[in-house]
């Protein structure tokens, strides 16, 4: 596939405003990866999935991984899946009332994020998805509904209740069902075939197994003493929705009705350093090359990251990119000077 064709395909990946998304750095990431000869790209912290999707468009075989189940569905819908889509009739069936549906969402989240009708719709949707026999259709449905929930929410997060940050956007008044139908069209449009087989996985990067020598893209939550990068706190509702809160430790006393996050790697100073050491050992032992995204206002520092990589790989190159985060991460107020950071890409071979 030519790079012009790649750009056309990448342009149709749904926008998600996912915290830490590298949507605006795709060209830099692809250029850095191209310095390696490896043709299998492992996106070990895939998040929104936009990087993996872009690399698929650039002709790589792609493997994705994330600890969040909804991120896994996004990647399975638009990266692993190369052919399956949802029809308008599928959408109608997914949004229809279901007499076997549960009432967990209506009861647990009443008056918190969505209207009573929308909570009932989400309960019915959860029962309807289970009736789809194609796993890719299930992932497309989850991808579209979780994106719909994000669009319908001020700031696209679930860290507070009510509509406190309503900025008058039309999206906040658009019914969830309409967001869902629109999102299905966007995810459908993101599905394409580059002739290779891809894989989406769900688990921790520190224990993932990849057999073939690959280039592994490492874009973990960035640890900073000034802000948290807790994905579960922001997105707990989406994560709950894709399993109907099965096996999640809901904390009923919290205002937001979040669940206790089982994912603590990269969340504190000690665990961030330790997790990089474990991950890099594993990737070096597996014969992989790595491409790491990290930023200047986070820990480990640039020098510490270089030391860790040089201790394990022969050649390490760094690219610095001036980057302004427009939303959601590391000092998330627009115009805040903390938003201006150097974004680093470390390539270790
Ligand atoms: C900076 S974001 C990745 C953003 C992504 N590159 C994009 O462009 O959308 C970090 C991701 O790491 C995931 N994550 C956190 N801890 C993880 C772990 N131990 N293993 C795999 N993924 C993890 C989070 O769920 C989040 O999706």
Give a structural overview:
There is one protein chain. The protein is an alpha/beta fold and 349 residues long. It folds into two domains: 1-83 and 192-229 and 266-349, 3-Layer(aba) Sandwich (Rossmann fold), CATH 3.40.50; 88-190, no CATH class. Helix content is 38%, strand content 12%. The chain has twelve helices and seven strands. It has helices spanning 3-10, 26-34, 50-57, 69-80, 88-95, 104-108, 116-129, 135-151, 176-190, 231-241, 269-285, 302-310; strands spanning 40-43, 61-66, 199-202, 215-218, 289-295, 316-324, 340-348. The protein has a seven-stranded mixed β-sheet with strand order 3-2-1-4-5-7-6, with helices on both faces. Helix 3 (50-57) links the parallel strand 1 (40-43) and strand 2. The longest helix has 17 residues, at 135-151. Mean pLDDT is 92; it is low at 4-8 and 327-335. S-adenosylmethionine binds at residues 18, 20-22, 45, 47-48, 50-51, 65-68, 71, 204-206, 219-221, 231, 263, 265-266.
């Amino acid at each position: 596939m030519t790079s012009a064709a790649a750009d056309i395909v990448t342009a149709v990946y749904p926008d998600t405003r996912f915290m830490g998304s590298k949507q605006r750095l795709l060209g830099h990431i692809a250029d850095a990866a191209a310095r390696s000869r490896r043709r299998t790209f492992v996106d070990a912290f895939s998040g929104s999935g936009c990087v993996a999707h872009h690399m698929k468009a650039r002709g790589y075989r792609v493997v994705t991984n994330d600890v969040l189940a909804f991120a896994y569905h996004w990647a399975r819908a638009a990266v692993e899946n190369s052919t399956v889509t949802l029809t308008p009739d599928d959408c109608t069936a997914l949004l229809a009332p279901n007499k076997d549906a549960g009432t967990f969402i209506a009861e647990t989240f009443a008056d918190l994020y969505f209207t009573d009708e929308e909570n009932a719709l989400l309960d019915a949707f959860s029962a309807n998805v289970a009736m789809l026999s194609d796993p890719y259709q299930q992932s497309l449905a989850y991808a579209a509904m979780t994106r719909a929930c994000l669009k319908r929410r001020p700031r696209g997060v679930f860290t507070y209740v009510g509509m406190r940050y309503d900025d008058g956007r039309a999206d906040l008044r658009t019914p969830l069902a309409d967001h869902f139908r629109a999102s299905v069209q966007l995810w459908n449009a993101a599905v394409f075939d580059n002739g290779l087989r891809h894989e989406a996985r769900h688990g921790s990067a520190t224990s993932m197994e990849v057999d073939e020598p690959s280039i592994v893209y490492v874009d973990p939550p960035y640890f900073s003493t000034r802000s948290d990068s807790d994905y579960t706190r922001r997105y707990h509702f989406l994560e709950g929705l894709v399993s109907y809160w099965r096996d999640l430790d809901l904390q009923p006393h919290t205002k937001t009705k979040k669940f206790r996050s089982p994912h603590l790697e990269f969340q504190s100073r000690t665990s961030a350093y330790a997790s990089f050491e474990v991950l890099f050992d594993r990737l070096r032992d597996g014969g992989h090359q790595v491409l790491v995204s990290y930023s200047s206002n986070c820990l480990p520092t640039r020098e510490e990251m270089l030391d860790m990589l040089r201790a394990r790989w022969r050649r390490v190159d760094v690219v610095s990119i001036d980057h302004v985060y427009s939303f959601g991460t590391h000092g998330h107020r627009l115009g805040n000077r903390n938003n201006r950071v150097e974004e680093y890409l470390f390539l270790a071979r």
